Amino acid sequence: MNPKKSLISANTIRSRFLAFFAARGHAVIPSASLVTPDEKGVTNATLFNTAGMQPLVPYLLGEPHPLGTRLVDAQKCLRTVDIDDIGDKTHATFFEMLGNWSLGDYFKKEAINWSYEFLTSPEQGLGLDPKRLYVTVFEGDANAPRDDEAVAIWQEVFRGHNIDCGGDTTSGQAGRIFYMPAKNNWWEAGDNGPCGPDTEMFYDLTGKFGGQPITKDQYLAADESREVVEVWNDVFMQYEKKDGRIIGKLPKPSVDTGAGLERLTMTIQGVDNIYDTDLFKPAMAITNRLADSLSKQRIIADHIRAAVFLIADGVTPSNTGRGYILRRLIRKAVFNTTGHQLSAGAIADLVAAYAEVYNETYSILHTKIIEISNVIREEADKFSASLVHGIKEFEKIAKSGQDISGVQAFQLFSSYGLPIDLTVALASAKSLTVDKADFEAEFKKHQELSRAGAEQKFKGGLADTNDPMVVRYHTATHLLHQALHDVLGDHVSQKGSNITAERLRFDFAHGAKMTDEEKKRVEEIVNRKIAEALPVQQVIMPKSEAEQTGARHFFGDKYGEEVSIYFIGQDLASAYSKEFCGGPHVSNTSELAGPEGSWHFKIQKEEAVAQGIRRIKAILA
Fold this sequence. Notes:
CATH architecture of the largest domain: 2-Layer Sandwich
Helix content: 25-40%
Number of strands: 16
CATH superfamily of the largest domain: Bira Bifunctional Protein, Domain 2
Number of domains: 3
Shape: globular
Radius of gyration: 27 Å
């Protein structure tokens, strides 16, 4: 352990980091949402921001950022690729990346010097012992040469502070800087986008090496045993990748520098795992009453924290996409409790604990504390009830002693809500395997059927396009949709509609029952837009241009190269509502007030129709 335990909190580390780089000309930018924009036609688009650089890809590729060429942030991230490792000392589903960015401005020399300064400066940084730092750099391959430039800069830094670098980095002698292959020291966010070599900084947690140079074998063994842990990473964005291949150098090389807050906090606070830091301690005090093993307690703490942030960013549980990830996290947390139950009280305590820990930076957690608790509780209760039957059904299947097929695993999921990883866990306890590939095929088939059904519902949404009342209600749904965004937030998305001459019915994604005040505000907005007598206009344009207008659109596969946008307002740019739509609509919102001008938009009913899906029935009268 670090012999001198620090009292520096995670919040202080974050704020000190932002202040350090702000003092060096970096504009502080807020974290983007965990949820990434939907990218039509991009096959490998991610559901969430999985790295600090992801929201900044356009600027790393050369697009100018409105705040300049030097940026710094603390970006919320979520990864599920390591979900099976959750419960160990260092892996987390949700995490924060502290990052400072050079967009064609400074490069390796400044990045490395500032990284060292922030890590080691007691006054402006974190005060780590510089003699306990060890560094790796890219050894080179067919894509890019060995990064001798970074090595030379590091040697200059260490020697300038009278720190022994040891022997030549290419020899077997003891040293402080080690060449490593691309799997260790090359960074990319997938098959497309900026990429390049990196240099990583590791800290000797135990002090076992006495601040002296070590051999590469000693470093590798210490890394494997987590006696040295990565605390910083400087990525040098010099190349661009397209469809899995390097296509050339970027016009302006950039720097993506930073550290995972959780692991950095662990190092600074002198503990050997992220769950003993102040980010997790309050939650762990609760989860140690909920499960009978440390790993299970950690899984519950990690998964609920991730769920809290996902719900705060508008995600609700479902069987597809982002909602499926959230559902899996909540259900796996429940599964790891003793008795497979997570009480309303425990959920409220956990959500409150995280809201307090992150209040300084993410005050929205306090704002949405009731909504977040309700979403988790509803999903947890639903799962606990179905789990009893699901486990009974699993036992029937497993009685044969045969491995679990993908079809059987999908039936357990679709009928009893058992996520695949829980089925795998139950099977493993009986020394059985699960055909996960076949399960994924069944799951994909289910998604395609669901999508086809949704598209059919969309096409059949209008009962009679020649009826004046049907046309009025169609325009009213556009106003309603935007008003729901205004009142409830941008997580709202249309899930279906049905319009007759008597009423409109509108289904939308939202994780909680609307309050009377929220319904009243929606009604007031719609009626105000009707009273403003706004023109309802149509424009047809290429799909690529239409997507840049901000117009809402659904069921993307049904649109051709040219699309129709109906917008409500004086022009497309300033329109109150704009959506991809084939019509028909009234020509002016005043027509929704009826022939005598006395009709008003009224919500008759608001109810749940599925987990995370609400339905509004409304009339003009």
